[in-house]
Amino acid sequence: MQNNLNNYMSKNSHIEQNPMIGIAFALAGTVLFSMGDSIGKWLTADYPVMQIAWIRSCSGLLLIGSFALFTGRLQQLKTSHPRDHVIRSFMSAGTIIFIFYALKSIPVAEYVSLTFAAPFLIALFSPMVLQEKVSLHSWMAIGVGFIGILFVMRPTPDHFHIAHLASLSVAASIAALTLTARLMAKTESAVALNFYIYPANIFISAWWALDGWVAPSLHDWILFLLLGVSATSALGCFIQALRYAKPSVVAPIDYARMLWMVGLGYLVWGEVPETMTWIGIAIIVASGIYVVSHGKKTPELEVSKETNTGL
Predict the structure, then answer these.
(1) pLDDT tens for residues 236-271?
(2) Which helix (H) or strand (E) covers residue 219, if one does?
(3) Every domain of the chain and the residues it spans
(4) How many Å apart are CA 253 and CA 175, to the nearest integer?
(5) What is the pTM of this model?
(6) What is the 3-state secondary structure (H, E, C) of 222-256?
């Protein structure tokens, strides 16, 4: 199914499969991702989106570079496909900017639910990109999932916001990054695939970030640091989860993020999803769980998790 995941599991075959430990790591990952999204939304109240995206990309590059340095994995940054990494880096640049723009502009529950369109898009384009077959039942679940997306977006003048499209763009970018990573997985390490997604955004957003720079307080510098650490740690949790449990067990756990984000949206910002939004969320979650659990091909978590919260 997924050569990269199979190779990863074979390298760690000495680790005994324990689904409960895998689920625990995955749940910890959802909490950390939700923490990162919430911190990002909090920071958008006082700082320009481009500045947040630039600092986030710089911290991501430094964190993964430090990880490679201190764990003796610098060799894994060598690549035989620099052009492909450049393409993926430009993909992720728009993703990071759209993430913070969407978090700033619409309720967190709507943002997160729309990013869960990624598994539908991965399954939709897998036959063309990876020549992977998708079952009829999965096609039906994908169609139902997009109906749920329409419930959340509700393209009416009193509800629709351009940030809804930005959220869908995030989902599309997650799908593209995942599919391209699976194509590159035979020759490129997970460290390289994560490291090289940041340079383009650092370059693209630098002028706007520095031109409109708002000097962060010490407290907010800590929040910026936590924003980077939470997403990077969350990715590590999901990788650990895959060492103890099958992808089909780990993948559905990601939907717990919806619970955390709805709760945080209510407690911190007083956001209460409307009835139509609840219906859309329920449809998206149910369809998404079916696609990632019953589809013949399960999306690559090790890569897709890096983009779900802006990396």
Answers:
(1) 788 788 778 877 778 888 899 999 999 999 999 999
(2) helix 218-244
(3) 17-304
(4) 18
(5) 0.83
(6) HHHHHHHHHHHHHHHHHHHHHHHCCHHHHHHHHHH
